[in-house]
Every structure is written in C-alpha cells, then in structure tokens.
Design brief:
The structure is a homodimer.
Chain A (H helix, E strand, L loop, with lengths): L7 H15 L6 H8 L3 H8 L2 H23 L5 H16 L9 H9 L7 H29 L7 H22 L2 H16 L8
The structure holds a DNA duplex.
Amino acid sequence: MRPREFDHDNVLRVAFDQFWRKGVRGTSLSDIARDAGVQRGSLYNAFGSKEALFLEAYERYAGDYLLALQKALSAGSLRKRLTAFFDLTITNFRSGSPPRGCPTTRGLMELGAAEGEGLDEDARKAFASLVSRITALVQDALSAGAERGEFGGNPAAAALHIITVTRGLAVLERAFGDEPQLRKIAAHTIDLVLGRARVNGQ
Amino acid sequence: MRPREFDHDNVLRVAFDQFWRKGVRGTSLSDIARDAGVQRGSLYNAFGSKEALFLEAYERYAGDYLLALQKALSAGSLRKRLTAFFDLTITNFRSGSPPRGCPTTRGLMELGAAEGEGLDEDARKAFASLVSRITALVQDALSAGAERGEFGGNPAAAALHIITVTRGLAVLERAFGDEPQLRKIAAHTIDLVLGRARVNGQ
DNA sequence: CCACGTTCTTGACGTCGTGTCAAATATGGG
DNA sequence: CCCATATTTGACACGACGTCAAGAACGTGG
C-alpha cells in the first residue's frame, strides 16, 4: 500500500473553491490539479471523475452550511430566526468578489440537467437532499412558532414557500446582483408569511 | 455577395431546441450543425460564437414567451390572471420529455457566471431584461387589481415577490420534478399575495 | 531483513469541442 | 462579362476529459 502524497481534504477545499467561482463545467481538472499541487491523474485515481469530485466537495460544503442554518434558526423569536435564516442565505451567495452565487442552485441547474447521464442523477439527489433538509429546518422553526402563537398558518406549506423564495433569490442574484433588493424581497416574504405584509404597507 | 445557403430562422429553432434540452455548455456546435444541415464553420461565420448563437436564439424565444404571458395576464379577475400566469410558467418548464426546465433560469445560472468574460455579460443582460419585463407585466396586473379592489398591497413589492417565486419554482423543478407540488406552491403564493392564505387554511 | 503485492503516481494517448484561417466557391452590381 | 464581396469548406492549433500502462513507494509476511 503506497500512501497518498496529497491532502484529501485540501483537494476538496481547493476544488470546491474553483467550482463555486467558475461552475463545474467551467472548471478543468488541470486547474484544480495545479492549484492543489496534485497530478491530474491522481485526481482521477482518487475520485473517479470531475463530477464525483465535485459531489464529494459539495457534500462537505452542504454539511457545514446546514449546521450554520440550523444555528441561525434556533435563536429568539420566529421573526428573528427567519431574519437570521434569510440573512445567512443571502450573505452566503453574496460572498466572494465577484459574488459567487448559490452553489446549490448553480450546481443544480448545471448538473441536474434533463438528459440524465449517470452521475448527474447522484448530483441531483444530493441537491434535492439539501433543499429538503433546509425545508425541514424551516418547517420546525415555523411549527415551534405556531405553538408559541407567533404564526398561524400551515408550517409545511409556509416552509415550502420560503425555500422557494430562497431559490428564487439565488436566481435573481445572478440576474441583478442588487443585494439591497434581495434583502427587501426577503423582508417582504417574512412579513407575508407572518401575516403582516398588508399592515406594514411596503 | 454570395447568398446564404441555410435558413437563418431554422438554425435558431434547431439551436434553441438543443440548448433547451442539453444546456449551452452541454451542446456542441457540431450537434447543431448536423441537425440543421449546416457546416460548423458557417455557424461561426454567421453568429460569431456559440454564446452569440444562443443569445440570438434565446431572444427569439423570449419574445414569444413574453407575448404569451402578456396574454395570460389580461383575462378575468386578478386571481384568474395570476393563476393563468403561474400555469403558463409551470407548463413551460414542464414541457418536453424529459421536462426541459426553465430556459431563462438554466441559461442564467449557466452563463451569468461570476467570472464575466465578455459575452456572458450580454447574456446576463438579456436574462435580466426578460425577468424585468415579466415583473413589469405582473406589476401592471396587480396595479389594475388594486384599482378594482382585488388587491390591497404594494404592487411593486408583490410583483417582485411573485417573480422570485417563479424563479424558485424553476429551481425546485430541477430538484424534484414533482409538478403537483409546484402547482401547490404557486396556489399558496397567490393566496398569500391576495391575503387569503391564513383564511383558506392549507 | 528482504521480496512481493498493493496502491499511488506519472506521462502518453485518443477523442471531442472550440475557435481561426486560408483557399475555394458562388453571386450580383458595375 | 468580370470582379469585389460574402459564404462555404476543410485543415489546423489548442485545451479538456478520461484511459492506460509503466514506474515508484510503501508495509507486510516470510
């Protein structure tokens, strides 16, 4: 058994950074190999393919991201928790310069293509799983809020609505990149869901 | 002046069909050239690059799509118009087998990349323009509804919210492909915007 | 302590896609 | 009728993906 000469974790970090900035199709294994100080062939040996490498790097990111969301969704009033949730979401895909967008949404639209050819399906499932898990987190927060009388609607439907809005924000971010507007939409959504939109005006 | 030997419009149709099914990066000019019965070099001569060809084909689609939306948004009560709007939206990206998704969202996430390198910027503007124009249409419908007492909120904010939801639906469609659920979210959004969500239960 | 198998590494290869170029070709205006 | 102009065509250079066989490094068992 010959031991690995490179740091598996470091490769994942370097790879995900590139994928996030340039997209999966826009990133070449040569780029990653160069930046990570690894031979291209070694990447194929260790991960199998570019998509598999992306998937592993993405799972790593998804775990961290989910933990951060969970934390944001567990402090203070329902309104505060939802605000923190949207804040973290928007801050995440406005990070970097230029902003790198939402990796989940970008990856999903790039790999969750219609003409499924093998590994794309695994990728689609990974994305779908993260989206589902986030939805569940939001739903829990709403359910807790319902018990405390902070929210009077259907938690499942509202959670689904909220996750839909976050995905929409990820798309609009690409189109306009106008962060204040994204935050306005988020605030409006919170108001709508909590039933105060028409009271607050704007 | 030697005349073109191919039908410019037909090439755009063939190209957009491929782009829609397989994405821009997933479609090769050889594919398009073969299907359209044109030499690859002629495409470069006529359009300049793959992205430019996509852009021209997309503009063509966008015009048609905008007209259809406009029509859907001009018949009956506000609720009926919004229902028709969402229906057209969802039907559009559930079309084809397998469903091809929303070309605007797919194209935007694919080409509206962060590391802008020239033509990507034009593409981003084209997508942003369509999104803006759709938002304006929805806003007009809401304003008209406000005058008739069908809607009591802020048309601009509500229109932005609605377009955000449609973009989110385009993303969720890729993740789950569960059309009934998409339609539920759409119905819920209409209820929310019209201020009936908590009355209707669900 | 050393040989051997197992795993990793390395570089070469085949294939495909993009974009460029020059030569060949077809047209219509002067 | 001829020539400027635009299009077509095939060849080319380049980069990326993925495969493969040969070489290198390790540790395990004799």
